[in-house]
Amino acid sequence: MTTATTIEQDQLLLLLTFLSPAFPTGAFAYSHGLEQAIASGAVSDSESLTGWLSALLIRGSAWNDAVLLRAVGREELASLNSLALSLSASRERHLETTALGGSFAASAAVFGDLALPEGETAYPIAVGAAASAAGISCEALIPAYLHAFAASLVSVAVRLVPLGQTSGLSVLARLMPVISEVTQRALGSTLDDLGSATFLSDIAAMRHEFQEPRIFRT
């Protein structure tokens, strides 16, 4: 099943800006535990990277983010943010989502006021709130968000494995159908669909806290 999406040009430009690697969230400093997975040998080439990222998209943290994005505007934002924060499986995952969320909210304020809950804000909640305020639909937002998530981690692997840039692009190409399928599921989701089963990724994030040496914050 496919969904046709119409988005106004100004909304498209804003969405591209929000999820651009140049948007000042500091996302380049976070590996989502992938640095530890590469160090341990769990991810060592384009095939294993594709499998690792596919799992995160289908049944891991990226899936939960997609469900949360769908819920923004449908659920009370403070409660949804608390739920999003509680989904962090480790200290480093909590650091990542709150640091990115805070930086994103501060930067997005340039384009208009955001009515966010007080205190720490989870990254998908900040992105969802900004997109909702701009009238950007979930049909456009979710695949763009998931693609940005995948592209950021492919960039980590290109530098650390290391993979060639062409190999990195081939991974993104193989992930595009996965992103489309996950988007379709997320568009029909409710909060009852939250949940992950990517234990190796969660353990990698926990072990990364004590990894020496390391380049990334998570």
UniProtKB/TrEMBL annotation:
Keyword terms, alphabetized: Chaperone, Cytoplasm, Nickel insertion
Key word Chaperone present: yes
Main subcellular localisation: cytoplasm
Localization, UniProt: Cytoplasm
Subunit structure: UreD, UreF and UreG form a complex that acts as a GTP-hydrolysis-dependent molecular chaperone, activating the urease apoprotein by helping to assemble the nickel containing metallocenter of UreC. The UreE protein probably delivers the nickel.
UniProt KW Chaperone keyword: yes
Name recorded for this polypeptide: Urease accessory protein UreF
Similarity field: Belongs to the UreF family.
Regions that span the bilayer: none
InterPro entries on file: UreF, UreF_sf
CC annotations in GO: cytoplasm
Function (record text): Required for maturation of urease via the functional incorporation of the urease nickel metallocenter.
One GO molecular-function entry: nickel cation binding
